[in-house]
Amino acid sequence: MARKFDHLADVEVFLSVVEHGSFSAAAIVLSTTPSVLSRALSRLEARLATQLLRRTTRSLSLTDAGQRYANEARDAFARLGQAEQAMRSTTAQLSGKVRMSVSTGYGQQRLPPILAAYARAYPLVELDVDITNRNVDLVAEGFDLAIRSGPLPSSTMASRQLEASPLCLLASPAYLETAGSLATLDDLARQQCIAFVRPNTGRVFPWQLRDGGRDIDWIPPASVMVSTDAMGVIWLAEQGMGIALCPRLFAEASLAAGQLVEILPQLSGRTRAFSVVYPAHRGLSAASRALIDMLVAARANANSRGQIAGVRSDIWTRTLP
């Protein structure tokens, strides 16, 4: 069987010439002569039937085809390097650095025990956790992975879903004591609602409800608005300032402590998905892959034990005088 990739040495020469800007500079690094590298590049261009570099007596520049091939070739060699690192990691302890981004809500409610377990399992890995409520640019800002909520736009990102948390309406017992009739969507429209404002648009985020089996996106008549951090709606609801809608996982501790109770279950039924995302075109380090696997396994184990929803307090559907 003929070898399919016996030209990889010529590809490495091409990338070295591109990286160092000239045949002479690349020849010094590779401990050879410029003429040897020039012949290697000519062989590669003949194989691909296209010109990769524009060569003059004074300069080198990439053609459009050369730029595309350089990008693809770098990615291919990076994947080979990651594959070798992954194989070595089966017999050697993981090391390196993992940079991840996560929102405050998920970072507070889910990550601490998982990251603690990861740190114990891989003490040589350095974790850099950016807890922020903006969608970072993973590639431009050098992140390995991020945890994001809601529908994921089609992009160059790969993803694995961690969980789908039910959305629920919440209020404090103190607020409910004076709320009056609260049994229907029309009743909800007459209540004090705590809305979240989209940072990128300045508009109120619609409440995703289900009324009579029909999904609706309902704009709450907001008496209080919160921006930037979605956890703010929970903190204000705990103080009796109104009714909030949020993924139940964000409010598990408040529900368990009795600071908040769930209301109007007939309007619930929709969920918010949470996924770990990472660049599809860039090879994952073994340390990053191990963290992703641990995140997925932790939520799968919780789901199998029936703990995704956490501890729920009594669900209120009340008509008060």
Shape: elongated
Radius of gyration: 27 Å
Q: Report, as a whole number of angstroms, the end-to-end distance.
A: 85 Å
Largest sheet: 8 strands, mixed
Low-confidence stretches: 307-321
SS field, number of helical segments: 11
Give the number of DSSP strands. 16
**Overall pLDDT level:** 84
Order of helices and strands: HHHEEHEHHEEEHEHEEEEHEHEEHEE
Strand-residue proportion: 25-35%
DSSP helix fraction: 25-40%
Protein structure class: alpha/beta
What features would you describe in this structure?
Residues 307-321 have low confidence and may be disordered. The chain has 321 residues and is an alpha/beta fold. The chain has helices spanning 8-20, 23-30, 34-48, 64-89, 104-109, 111-121, 173-177, 185-189, 231-238, 252-257, 286-304; strands at 53-55, 60-62, 96-102, 125-131, 145-149, 157-171, 181-182, 193-197, 207-211, 214-218, 222-227, 244-247, 261-263, 271-279, 315-316, 318-319. A hairpin with a 4-residue loop joins strand 1 and strand 2. Helix 1 crosses helix 2, helix 1 (8-20) packs across helix 3 (34-48) and helix 2 (23-30) crosses helix 3. It is built from eleven helices and 16 strands. Strands 3, 4, 5, 6, 12, 13, 14 and 15 form an eight-stranded mixed β-sheet that branches. Strands 1-2 form a two-stranded antiparallel sheet. The chain has a two-stranded antiparallel sheet with strand order 7-16.
